[in-house]
Design goal:
- The protein is of the alpha+beta class and about 160 residues long.
- It has one domain (about 15-155): Cytidine Deaminase, domain 2.
- The chain is built from three helices and six strands, in the order βαββαβαββ.
- It has a six-stranded mixed sheet with strand order 1-6-5-4-2-3.
- Helix 2 runs parallel beside helix 3 (about 115-125).
- The protein is globular.
- Bound molecules: tetrahydrodeoxyuridine.
Length: about 160
C-alpha cells in the first residue's frame, strides 16, 4: 500500500483591486451578469464571465426552472455558450461572482462539482489551463491556476 497525497493550491487576493486589470474587468462583468440571474427559487445569484483567446468575453448567469433540475448554473450557461459559439477558440480565464439575496457573501464561493466537471471537459479539449477566479459579492478573490487544480482525480474521456 502507498499513500497518494492530492493538493490544491489557491492564490487569494484581498480585494478585486489587487487583481490584474483584465481580470478585474472580467470580474466586474461577472458581477453584472449576476444581476441578470433568474433565481426565483433559491434566491442565490451567480454570474460568470469568460475571457477567450480572441478577446471575446462571454457571460452567463444561473437560470432556474419550476422543475428544479432543469435549471442551469452560471458557469455552465457561460461555458456551453462559449463552446457553441467559438468551438475552436481557447478559453483563458473565468471569473465567478456569487451571492444570496438572504445574506451578504463576503468570502470566495467556488463553482459546484458539476460545473467543475463541465469546465474540465473544455480544459482537456483545448490542452491549455483555464484560470478560475471566484468570489462572493465583495471581499477576497480566490484564484485557481487551472480547473484540474480544483478537481483532482477528475473523470475524463481517456477511460472511455
Ligand atoms: N449555482 C450556480 O450558478 N453555480 C454554482 O457553481 C453553484 C450553484 C446556482 C444553481 C442554483 O440556481 C443556485 O445557484 C442555488 O444552488
Amino acid at each position: 500500500m502507498k499513500e497518494i497525497k492530492v493538493a490544491s493550491i489557491l492564490e487569494v487576493y484581498d480585494t478585486v483591486h489587487e487583481l490584474p486589470e483584465d481580470v478585474n474587468k472580467l470580474m466586474q462583468m461577472a458581477h453584472e451578469a449576476r444581476k441578470r440571474a433568474y433565481a426565483p427559487y433559491s434566491s442565490f445569484f451567480v454570474g460568470a464571465a469568460l475571457l477567450l483567446e480572441n478577446k471575446e468575453i462571454i457571460t452567463g448567469s444561473n437560470q432556474e426552472n419550476a422543475s428544479y433540475p432543469s435549471g442551469l448554473c452560471a458557469e455552465r450557461t457561460a461555458i456551453y455558450y462559449a463552446g457553441a459559439k467559438f468551438p475552436k477558440t481557447r478559453i483563458l480565464k473565468m471569473a465567478i461572482s456569487a451571492g444570496s439575496k438572504n445574506k451578504v457573501s463576503q468570502k470566495p464561493i467556488p463553482p459546484c462539482g458539476a460545473c467543475r466537471q463541465a469546465i474540465a471537459e473544455y480544459e482537456i479539449k483545448q490542452k491549455f489551463p483555464i484560470e478560475i477566479y471566484f468570489m462572493g459579492e465583495t471581499g477576497k478573490v480566490a484564484k485557481s491556476a487551472s480547473l484540474e487544480n480544483l478537481l483532482p482525480f477528475l473523470f475524463d474521456n481517456s477511460v472511455l
